[in-house]
Design a protein that fits this description.
The protein is an alpha/beta fold and 350 residues long. It has 2 domains: 106 residues, no CATH class; 215 residues, von Willebrand factor, type A domain (Rossmann fold, 3-Layer(aba) Sandwich). Helix content is 36%, strand content 24%. The chain has 10 helices and 13 strands. The strands form 4 sheets. A 6-stranded mixed beta sheet has the order 5-4-3-6-7-12, sandwiched between helices. A hairpin with a 5-residue loop joins strand 9 and strand 10. Helix 3 runs antiparallel to helix 10, helix 4 packs antiparallel against helix 5 and helix 6 runs parallel beside helix 7. The longest helix is centred in the N-terminal third of the chain and has 17 residues.
Length: 350
């Protein structure tokens, strides 16, 4: 019995016992017939009978039989087992495990997404993380190699604090190792397991890759995406940057930005994202590919992913029965005891 939840519905578990109520008048008729006495007055004087008739106790002559009737009625109800039903709706949430894979290569300093690609990605991902409720979130960063910045956790302030500290110098290995970063994220998801989730509320496991470059180091990204798909991990890919080439700049001795040129004097540009590869990765990983050419578009992309991977909520109705037979039983015993006590006091003649 759970007293926290008041009963919403009442019923009798054994209603057939209420037929015993019909035996109560039969019981009193038989008792009256057995105790029947011949008519007559045995008082020595009429004055004594008149005084007895005027005795105020006579107005209480019905107390003893009333206690007896109430006790029998309550006993019948106790045998019928009144029960209260507490109907509860349990909310079962299937949370997500999300690994964010963020590119930290030098090209993330490009300013086609204001103030630059990395700063915009950090700000939008921070908002995305703060919208989590029960999801576990982790971060993998990469350039020429992939590293775990934050393992899966629901400590969102810590995740955001780690996210704010990263720069293009966090991973001091040049290049863009997309395949290695994906496998690092997959390992973190698989190692975390599902110890915090029951069998009926197992989490969806998602990898979100945001990059602006072309894979040029390590394992083939498509091979990594197939491994993710085999392990039941869904992959979303986001290309950061617009369709136009973004020129590279450097600061001169006076601190001014000047165009960066090669040894032949030609302007150098940041590398464009490999959209075809990112699209294939998403197809292999069972997710979708998105192109984010500006900060507003990047926010829309993460909102779309939010809707696609919306937490799955199921409602389960449970009914708990509370036994209440002890209340009529206790009252029946009370009236039986009261009847026995009154029958041995001055009420015994009435």
């Amino acid at each position: 019995m759970n007293p926290i939840f008041p009963p919403q519905y009442w019923h009798l578990a054994n209603p057939d016992y209420l037929w015993l109520l019909l035996l109560i008048p039969v019981f009193f008729l038989l008792r009256s017939w057995i105790r029947r006495k011949p008519p007559g007055i045995f008082f020595p004087a009429i004055s004594t009978a008149e005084r007895l008739i005027r005795d105020p106790r006579q107005s209480l002559h019905h107390v003893i039989p009333l206690c007896r009737v109430l006790a029998l009625v309550l006993l019948a109800f106790a045998m019928a087992r009144p029960q209260g039903e507490v109907r509860r709706v349990d909310r079962v949430v299937r949370a997500l495990d999300i690994m964010l894979v963020l590119d930290l290569s030098e090209s993330m300093r490009a300013n086609d997404i204001k103030p630059n690609r990395l700063a915009a990605a950090r700000a939008v991902l921070q908002k995305f993380i703060m919208e989590r409720k029960l999801d576990r979130v982790g971060i993998v960063v990469f350039s020429g190699a992939g590293f775990t910045l934050m393992p899966l956790t629901t400590d969102y302030p810590s995740v955001i604090a780690g996210l704010q500290d990263i720069t293009t110098n966090t991973v001091r290995i040049e290049g863009t190792a997309i395949g290695e970063a994906l496998l690092t994220a997959a390992n973190r998801l698989l190692e975390a397991g599902m110890e915090n989730f029951s069998e009926n509320s197992s989490p969806g496991r998602v990898v979100i890759l945001a990059t602006d470059g072309v894979n040029n180091r390590g394992i083939d990204p498509e091979a990594a995406a197939r491994i993710l798909a085999e392990k039941g991990l869904k992959l979303y890919t986001i290309s950061l940057g617009g369709e136009e080439r973004v020129p590279r700049f450097r600061r001169d001795f006076s601190g001014q930005l000047v165009p960066l040129r090669d040894v032949y004097g030609r302007r150098l540009y940041w590398e464009k994202p490999d959209e075809d590869t990112l699209r294939r990765l998403a197809e292999i990983g069972g997710g979708q590919y998105f192109q984010a050419g500006n900060r507003g578009k990047l926010e829309e992309v993460l909102d779309q992913i939010n809707k696609l991977e919306k937490q799955k909520v199921t409602l389960k109705r449970s009914v708990e029965h509370q036994e209440w037979f002890f209340w009529p039983l206790a009252l029946a015993l009370f009236f039986l005891g009261l009847e026995r006590i009154l029958a041995r006091t001055r009420f015994r003649r009435f």
